[in-house]
Structure formats: structure tokens, C-alpha cells
Design goal:
single chain, 316 residues, mainly alpha, 2 strands, 70% helix, globular
């Protein structure tokens, strides 16, 4: 996982590679779309639609997990296997991509180009960008940065460390299904129920770990920790509130709160209520904080590796 994180930090997922073979998440997405097309039937009884959605979760995770287990089985247990495993894990991390997407919001926002800032933030959030002022854009981007630190970086590392390639692949499959079929529209309210619940469960440890990493790397760790413990459980998501509240406390800004989505308004409570709205400078500071989180995660991985490597190097 350390090799994968280093590759992702250095290269991201190169456009040339994407043009040639696409991306593993998009491969999983095609399978989910196919099952959605054939199994998500409007005429089914509610119970059967829930069962069909649960079957999608079982089929997709079974296929992906078996594929990951097969790859892990054939890898040699030496340095070559470590490097090969890192390459196979590399595309399922999104540390560099997340940074680039938020940086694309920071630059026009600091320049006062609201049209370009709204366009950039619409790539990473689901709320109506035309309803956002400068503070709203900064808040939306900061929330996306904090939440996706868990979904795109810490959670894949976590499950990859504990369960290898099968754990990593299954996690990304679950996360992909959650993003595709777990929204609250009439088509997916029942069909996506299982995907949403499973995604909530597998993100419980990584989300809290992400919040702790933000606490440890912030300039105000005690405040960040206090805000996280106080406000995270008030978030509508059982997991996203932990890194978001930690970031809000660490930067001294307020996040979450009322916002407008395509399906209607959301009246969520504030995280770190009473603090000011984020400015473009606060969003840039959030990116700097995110870099420290990723560096700390890499350091932890290195320490874990060294702790499990024989001093004579025989493990390599």
C-alpha cells in the first residue's frame, strides 16, 4: 500500500493510461450498470427490489474479491511481489486526483473568477453550483476534500493494509456501488439500500481514522479534536462528519449547514457553528492540511512496514 500511495502521489492515473485501458473503477461501474439495467425493475414489489439490490452487492463484491484474491495468490512473497502488489493497488487510490480537483477550485476562487470556480466545484459536489457564492464554493470544496480523504485515500489504505488486494478491491467496489445506486431518488431508494448500508459499515473505521489524522496534523489539534467529538455525530452521514468536523475545527471555519441539492434543500446542522465561513485562503490552507494528512499516512505505512520486516532483510 505504501508503494501504491507513492505511485499515486507521483503519477496519479495518467491520461495516456486512462485512454488506453480506462480505469478499474469504470470497469466495475459497467458491471453495476448492467445489473442495474436488468435487475432494477419498477414493477417489482418493494421487498423484491431490496433483495435485488442486495444481490447486486453480493455478486459484485464476490467477483471483485475473487479477482483480487487470485492476484494475491500468484504474487511472490518477496520484494518483487511487494512492488507488483503496489502497482495493482495503485489505480484504486485517489490522493493526487483529489488534490488536483480541489486545487482547480482554489485557483479561480482566489482570482475572483466565479464562473470557473462554480464549474470546478460542480465536478466534486452534488449541490447546485449556481446557488453558491464564494463562501459556499469554498465550503463545498472543503467538505468534499475532507470526506474524500477518507473515501479516496485512507479507507483504501486501511482495507488494503488489513486484507491485501481482495480487501482493497472489495472496498472500492462497495464505494462505487454506493456512488452509483445508493442515492435517494425513486429509482434507487429501495434498490440501493443494501449498497448504502454496506458502504456505511465499511467506512466506520477509516472515517474516524481520517478525522484523527486531520486532528494530528492541524495547527490547532485540541480545537479540532473537541469539534470532531462534539459535532461529527450531528452530520447526516454516519461517517463524513468525522473528517469534516476535524477539518472545520483545525482551520477555525464552519462547514456543512444548509445547502441546496438538485433534489431539494438540505437543512443540516453546522460543524463548528459560530466560526466564520471559509475563504479562498482557508481552502488553500485546507489543501496544505490535506498534504500533511497524506504524508502522515505514508509515514505510518512506512513504520508498519519496517516493524514487520526482518532486520537482516530476509523478508525481501
Amino acid at each position: 500500500m505504501l508503494v501504491a500511495l507513492l505511485l499515486d502521489g507521483l503519477l496519479g492515473w495518467p491520461a495516456m493510461v486512462f485512454a488506453l485501458i480506462g480505469h478499474p473503477v469504470s470497469w466495475v461501474g459497467r458491471v453495476v450498470s448492467l445489473l442495474d439495467h436488468h435487475w432494477n425493475c419498477d414493477t417489482q414489489a418493494p421487498f423484491m427490489r431490496r433483495c435485488a439490490g442486495g444481490a447486486v452487492v453480493l455478486v459484485v463484491t464476490g467477483l471483485v474479491g475473487s479477482f483480487g484474491a487470485g492476484l494475491a495468490y500468484v504474487l511472490p512473497h518477496n520484494g518483487v511481489g511487494i512492488l507488483a502488489g503496489g502497482v495493482l493497488a495503485w489505480p484504486l487510490l485517489a490522493a493526487r486526483s483529489l488534490y488536483a480537483h480541489v486545487q482547480a477550485v482554489v485557483q479561480p476562487l482566489q482570482a475572483g473568477d466565479m464562473a470557473e470556480a462554480r464549474k470546478a466545484v460542480s465536478m466534486i459536489v452534488g449541490r447546485d453550483p449556481n446557488a453558491l457564492d464564494a463562501a459556499g464554493i469554498a465550503r463545498a470544496a472543503a467538505e468534499s476534500l475532507a470526506e474524500n480523504t477518507s473515501d479516496g485515500v485512507v479507507a483504501p489504505l486501511f482495507w488494503g493494509v488489513f486484507f491485501g488486494l481482495p480487501g482493497l478491491y472489495v472496498y472500492k467496489a462497495i464505494n462505487t456501488m454506493d456512488s452509483m445506486i445508493a442515492n435517494r431518488t425513486p429509482r434507487y431508494r429501495l434498490f440501493g439500500w443494501a449498497a448504502a448500508r454496506v458502504d456505511d459499515v465499511v467506512n466506520i473505521p477509516p472515517a474516524r481514522l481520517s478525522g484523527l489524522l486531520y486532528v494530528l496534523t492541524s495547527a490547532a489539534p485540541l480545537r479540532a479534536f473537541r469539534v470532531m467529538l462534539r459535532d461529527a455525530r450531528g452530520h447526516r452521514s454516519p461517517n463524513a462528519g468525522w473528517p469534516e468536523a476535524a477539518m472545520a475545527g483545525g482551520l477555525g471555519i464552519r462547514l456543512s449547514g444548509p445547502r441546496l441539492y438538485a433534489e431539494g434543500p438540505s437543512r443540516d446542522p453546522w460543524l463548528n457553528a459560530g466560526a466564520p465561513d471559509p475563504t479562498p485562503l482557508d481552502l488553500a490552507a485546507g489543501l496544505a492540511l490535506y498534504r500533511r494528512v497524506v504524508l502522515l499516512a505514508a509515514l505510518i505505512l512506512l513504520m508498519v512496514f519496517l516493524a514487520h520486516t526482518p532486520l537482516d532483510g530476509a523478508g525481501l
